Amino acid sequence: MPGLTRESNLNNSSLQPGTEEHIPPGRSLWADGIRRLRKQRLAVVCFWIIVFYLALAAFEWIAEARKWESPAFIRWNEIVGPSYQKPMVPYEWTTADGKTEIRREWMGTDFMGRSTFRRTLYGAKTSITVALCASLISLAIGVPLGAAAGYFRGWLDELIIWLISTLSTIPYLLLLMAFAVVLRDKTVFGLELRGITSVYLAMGLTSWVGICRLIRGEFIKRKESEYVLAARATGCSNARIIFSHLLPNVFHIIIIDLSLRFVHFIHAEVILSFLGLGETDKPSWGAMIDAARAELARDVWWEMTAATIAIFLLSLALNLFGDALRDCLDPKLRVD
Amino acid sequence: MTVYIIRRLLYTVPIVVGVLLLTFFLFSVVGGDISQQIAGKNADAETIAEIRHEYGFDKPLFWSLDSQFIDHFRKALTFNFGRALDREKISDKILRGVGPSLSLTVPMFLGTLVLSISLALMVAFVRGSWLDVAAVVLCVAGMSIPYLSFIIYGQYIFAYKLGMFPIMYMPEESLLTSLALPVLIGIAAGLGGNLRFYRTIVLDEMRSDYVRTAFAKGLSTAKVLFKHVLKNALIPIITSVVLSIPYLFLGSLLLERFFGIPGLGSLMIEAIASRDFFIINAMTFIFSLLIVVFTLLTDICYAWADPRIKLE
User: Fold this and answer.
1) In a mutagenesis test of the B interface, which of A274, A289, A321 is the best target, namely the one with the most B β-carbons within 10 Å?
2) Interchain proximity A171–B250, CB inside 8 Å
3) Are strands A100-103 and A91-94 parallel, antiparallel or unpaired?
4) Strand, coil or helix: A6
């Protein structure tokens, strides 16, 4: 048996180095992909930018849950200066305990005199929460449906195809807005949908079509491959084949799709905020850009610029990293 | 061919029914009775009852010949969507918005198309060089800026600060002056994604055998690109063009809002602000139908051009 000879070869080579042909241990798809990825400096930089944003969001989240007061940058609601203070211009400010000091706010203040910098940092939490929850919902719907349709085919496939074509027939923005409008301030199954909850629910419920189609296509392609036939021949159940053989093999597709879809969610949050369907009482990048409509006429450009740069950096990093990830994990898809 | 068209036509029926089921579920089951919201906070029970009766909220949802479910289908299939919350007929509102929307989106679409295809061919011409890499990075950078930022900065800088264009759409001015800035902003915002998309199509085509043959017989790169690749890349390009025609009717939600263009995008935003489910419902159905029709046309054109498809 080939397996045995290979093992004995390995044993021999470990006993008598140099006499037998040395077989290096195999690398998995992921190890291989990550090796390729680490060679691309741009992708590594993007990866650390994304990690930074995620860490920031996590930190803001913990600080809010535990009601921390320090470090200073998490107090986004604190009034630190006069209304619409320009960035980097020193100003005199009397604090609550009566001390007067010269300060400078390096990204300026908003209409209530709150720090734009702190609000931008807090916006990372809002945007990333929305994008993460929307991604999780769309994966939780799309992956099982796609897997079931591709694996079982038949009437189930027809039904899911019908669902997919129905949803993709409605223009995405209309669909998203219809969901967001209807779900807003509703109580569904005892859960009150306020603020960002209705935002990510609407995004998640409308955006699973893409990943569902991808997974279905992959399952149809891989269903007849040797490893699945072998698993079936040894008596594996359908559930086992799907969960421990097929899904791990398409996992990289899910990750790639996720990293690119994340950008769409962040941009969609901006549009929904602008339409008045987003977060209302806490800072979010969308709300900050939306505020600029009234502010630009008074030459207040910093709040919008801060939010735009924050979105731009994160989206750029995600886009470039997602592309690099696709090239490394799925070289067949590479364009050039 | 006739059999194919009939089969393809029948296939659209479940999709239209699906859209109607979805909108019914969304607006009537989840959204439900909005008579309280229409009447206002201080309305008495009598007014509310009147409104409930007028909009049909007092009918049973299902299981009756005169249910909301049947009503929903009848309204959609006869294109009689009734009146909006401000008592104007919804079909009038929509017909009025089509013109302004199209005069914004058609030049925007054509501009983006021509610019991005010619740039894509140029980028393919220098593929692999640092120029190509720079172009791709620039495209991704353009795609990473929120659409709203493009609009707000564009309006602020070119209309408000420099005064090169009017800030708002003015019906009495010529279309050229009042729509130039929104069109240019739309082209700038859409260029990144489109250029990258067409570059992918062109480079995909570059890997074909006929391109290798063309190079092997000694043709110049320019000749290969413009005589051979462009012609063959036209098929995916035309598909994407035909499929984006319905979206042109939809107008541009954000651009119309910022420049005060009275198109369908503005109508949509007004409907959201006043939570007018009737308008959103009508728009959703009409545009889904439009997309169904254009997808059908594309498929029939495909079958006409490539006889193999009919047999599948």
Assistant:
1) A274
2) yes
3) antiparallel
4) helix
Handedness of CA B135, B137, B140, B144 (dihedral sign): negative
Are B149 and A304 within 8 A, CB to CB? yes
Nearest CA to B244 among A225, A172, A317, A139?
Answer: A172
Helix (H, G, I), strand (E, B) or coil at A22: coil
Find how far residue A178's CA is from the centre of its chain.
23
CB pairs under 8 A between A and B: 129
**How far is Cα B232 from Cα B218, in angstroms, rounded to an integer?**
19
Query: Which residues, including other chains, have CB under 8 Å from residue A52's CB and lie 6 or more apart?
Result: none
Cβ separation A179–B26 shorter than 8 A:
yes
Among A114, A128, A161, residue whose Cα is nearest residue A291: A114
Task: Note the ipTM here.
Answer: 0.84
Residue recorded with tokens 């100003």: A91
pLDDT digits (tens, 9 = 90+) for B275-309: 888 888 898 899 999 999 998 888 888 877 777 76
Predicted local confidence at residue B236, as pLDDT: 81
Amino acid at B19: V
Q: Per residue in A20-32, is it b (16+ CB within 10 Å) or e — as a string?
A: eeeeeeeeeeeee
Q: Which residues of A touch B253 (CB under 8 A)?
A: 173, 271
Of B18, B140, B149, the CB nearest to A316: B140
Q: Which chain B residues have a beta carbon less than 8 Å from that of A322?
A: none
Phi and psi at residue B32, in whole multiples of 5°?
75, -155
Concatenated DSSP letters for A45-113? HHHHHHHHHHHHHHHHHHHHHTT---SGGG-TT-B-SSTTPPTT--EEEE-TTS-EEEE--TT-B-TTS
**C-alpha to C-alpha distance for B154 and B139, rounded to whole angstroms:** 18
CB contact under 8 A, B128 and A336: yes
* B106-149 confidence digits (pLDDT tens): 999 999 999 999 899 888 888 888 898 899 889 999 999 999 89
Instruction: Determine, for residues A170 and B284 on separate chains, whether the beta-carbon distance falls below 8 Å.
Output: yes
Note the pLDDT tens digit of each residue in B45-56: 777 777 777 777
In the predicted model, what is the mean pLDDT of residues A128-135?
Answer: 92
Please indicate, yes or no, whether the overall pTM of this predicted structure exceeds 0.95: no
Q: Is A162 exposed, middle or buried (0-12, 13-18, 19+ CB in 10 A)?
A: middle
C-alpha span between A330 and B190 (Å, rounded): 27
